[in-house]
Write a structure and sequence with these properties.
flat
Length: 62
Amino acid sequence: MWQEVFIAVALFLIIEGFIPFVSPARFRVFVERMSKLNNDNLRIIGFISMLVGLLMLFLITA
């Protein structure tokens, strides 16, 4: 069980680190744009991301 959790965290870190590694300038612009969004928009984006992740997990494990 814990091995799967650590694998998931490791994959998350690899994916999250890929964009700033490949294109730091574009990543900086993206972060700047995200910082200008209001809280409601950030919550909606986070909620949609969670739903997509849950859907992917459901499709993979079903």
